[in-house]
Structures are given as C-alpha cells and as structure tokens.
Amino acid sequence: MLINEIEIAGSSISLKCWSMKVENVEATFDTIMNKADMFSIDTELPGFHDCDCENSIIRGFYSVIIPFEIEHLVDGITTKTLFKRIESCEFIITGKLIVTFGKAGPMKLLGAALSAATGEHVDLLEFEFQHLNQLQERMTNIKAIVVTNPKEKEIRRARLAGHMESYTEYNIIDPRNHGIENIAGLIDTPLGPMTITVGKKGSIRLNVKKGLIMTVECLEWILDLIVSETAPGPVKAPQSVF
Fold it and tell me: Nearest 5°: CA angle at 26, between 23 and 31?
C-alpha cells in the first residue's frame, strides 16, 4: 500500500479534520520525530510510532495504553481484574490537510502532542455556515440535513431526511438566522460518486464501495469542495483504484 492510499475495509470511513500551520512538510516530520514522544509499551508512554514521510505526505500512528476492568466470577465470588489495551489513531499530514481516523481517545491526545512538538496551535477544523451552505449547493442531491434555529423559535433543531435539491424550500427554518449542524448528500468525486456527511466540528464521513482505495489527493479534493470559494476541478483517478 502506497503512503497516499487508504484501503477502506468496510463500506465507510470517518475522519476528523484539524487545523495547523504547516509551511514545510518534511521539516514538520523531522520535528515530530526529534521532539515528540514516541509510543512505548514498556513505559506505557503515549506517543507516535510507525511514522513515514514521502512525497510531501506524513503518515503515522498515535497510540495510548488504556486500562480497563472486567467483572467475573472466581470460586463463586464476583471480582474485578485490571487489563490494558492499546488504542490507536492514524494521521495524515500534507500541506493542504491534516486528517485523523481511528479511536477518538488517541485523537485528542494527538492534537496536544502535535502542538507541544511543533509549537503551533492545533485544533479541530470547524466548518463555518458558509462552508456547509455552499457544500449543499455542490451536491448532486441532499439526503439529510440538521439545521438549528435561534433559541426563541418553537423549533430549535430539525432534521430533514429524504432527497432534496435545497433545504431552504422548507418553512421550518428562520431563513435569515439559522445554522447548519451537519449535512449529508451525494457528491461526484474523482474516485466516483460517494455519500458524504459533514459536521460543523470538523467531521467527515464517507460511504463508499467496500474495499475502495481512497487516495490523499481525493481527500484534499473533498476538503476543497467544502471550504474553497470555487469548486475544485476534476482530478485524474489513479490506475490502482480500478
């Protein structure tokens, strides 16, 4: 598997998008490897591991050891035994995007670890109203949308589901003062049509064909589709996905 490819074992992948200033990808990789904590099973230190940098793409893992208890019977007496497990998330950093996927716990620690190592502010990328509004205009159709009204309205939060060309056709929203919490719909990507669900707190979920090879270039294209003022142009799909 190439560094710019993600094999999606199931029928979907959920991503978190992050904001961090990355001027030089290779220099950021060196900073992570030299200044950040590396994961250790022996000392149970959370940290980075299996990191690589190639073609201006950083890819690696951040893992943490989590203790947990299991209640069970010993000689007819209920007792608890402490166990430990490894939880991990995978991350990809380019000059255009930072995404993570995997367990939620390590993701939170990853953000703090990146900030400590690089000295840059690292936080979840929040999609503004205009981003989600223009995304719905760029969809083939909308499948679901959650909108929020001001607190003084009778309907404060509404979820519309179905097939819509525009959610503004419905009279349950304040047309001049409402927000979009998340939106789902069909988009035509360089790798074919996909259903995308985008939440305002930096979440992207892609429903795809099982076994699809997602590329970093396609993820960058999708992020551009959300945040760019002009819709991105077509990107040639790599031969390996067919």
Answer: 85
